[in-house]
Amino acid sequence: MELALALGKERSVARAPQGARDGLRAWALLKGLPPNYQEPLGMRWENNRLVPDVNYDVACGIWRMALEGTTQWGIAKSLTARGISTPKGRMVWSGTTVGSILTNLVYAGVVEALKTEAVAPRARRKATYGNSSSRRRPQEERVRLEGLVAAPIVTEEEFQWALERRRHNQRYAAKNTKMREYLLKGRIRCARCARVYTGVTRGDHAYYYCRGRAKVDWGAQKCSAEKLKAQEVEQAVYETVVHVLESPEVYLGEVERRWESREQTINSLRRAVADLDRQAREEREAEAQAIRLASRFEVSDDAFQQEVGLIRTRRRWIGEERGRVQAQLDDLGDGPPDPAAMAKLGDALSERLAGATPEDRRSVLDAVGATIIAQGDGTWELELEIPQEPPPSEPEMQIVNS
Asked: In this structure, are strands 228-229 and 143-146 parallel, antiparallel, or unpaired?
């Protein structure tokens, strides 16, 4: 009897965290409201809506400077010099505080619910238990709630532009080039942990390291990817890009050959998506059946909780797998690059290709969207985003906050 009571208590304790997570998600999905009502700078909650408050003009000023191209540390210095207090009432602003404002989608009219989740810590300093640490969820796992912001400051297009501008400033910040120029900073991604490589100088040698080797989320393992010699990989990548732009017929021929062989892969991925959709429907029907049986008292509470937990775990896995397969299908769905676009791009970059300055080389890599996928064993692959049609002759209009 004592053993049975102990097992029951253990199961109820294990079900409690999952029940709490399901309740928070249901609150956001069914009621369309965030589980917690945190107030961003310049807004306050009133009747389940975010309305402007006394600091609304301050938030507008921060976004105005960001859309003009000012860095987050430049914005922080400007706010400190003007004597404006921070959200916590301090008189000295930091770039981190400004960065938290510029990465909050609420200013574009979207409230993101469930942005973090509890996880087990890597190390426990005391005799504790449970998930006492937290991590930020990926963008696709968050719940978007729209219609809760009365007066958004920027559009989503402006928000994404400012976000990309912030990444650009971080990539080419002066502190990152004190020892040398890192041409591929922010362009190398690890195939093992999906993190970005960073440039590091050790004595007379420079390398690119995976950030997962040092900084990892709570509960995660350090990445075992090997380092890359900076000079070798930079020279090889740039020479490959120049060869592609100067001799596009070889590149286009290889792309065309691979495109013809993609048809079989695309059909296979489409079948996989259809099969995952079928499994998702079956799991939804199984969950509905379990709920009907529980409502008639035909199954015990323990059996019901166990079965529903397994069903929801399978549904979560199916959803994640479908997203991964659909992403692969979307990538393969793009057609091959247009020869006219290649020629026009090569002509536009002809002067830059001959340049030897870091600015010239960076502009070339930006134009072709160069991304390096490091395999972790010292090898890497180069991915290019060549336009599928000739780029417009008119320059793009710069976003200006109105």
From this structure: unpaired
Closest CA relative to residue 40, chosen from 95, 109, 93, 136? 109
Torsion-angle region of 194 (φ positive above 0: left; ψ -120 to 50: alpha; else: beta) = left
Chain centre to alpha carbon of residue 217 = 15
Label the pairing between strands 50-52 and 43-45.
antiparallel
**Euclidean distance between CA atoms 298 and 305, whole angstroms:** 13
Paired residues of 372 in beta bridges: 188, 382
Give the Cα separation of 228 and 144 in Å (integer). Answer: 39
Q: List pLDDT tens digits, range 338-388.
A: 556 556 666 666 666 666 677 778 888 887 788 899 998 889 988 877 655
* 3-class state of residue 293 by DSSP: helix
Rounded CA gap, 79 and 56, in Å? 14
Q: Is 345 exposed, middle or buried (0-12, 13-18, 19+ CB in 10 A)?
A: buried
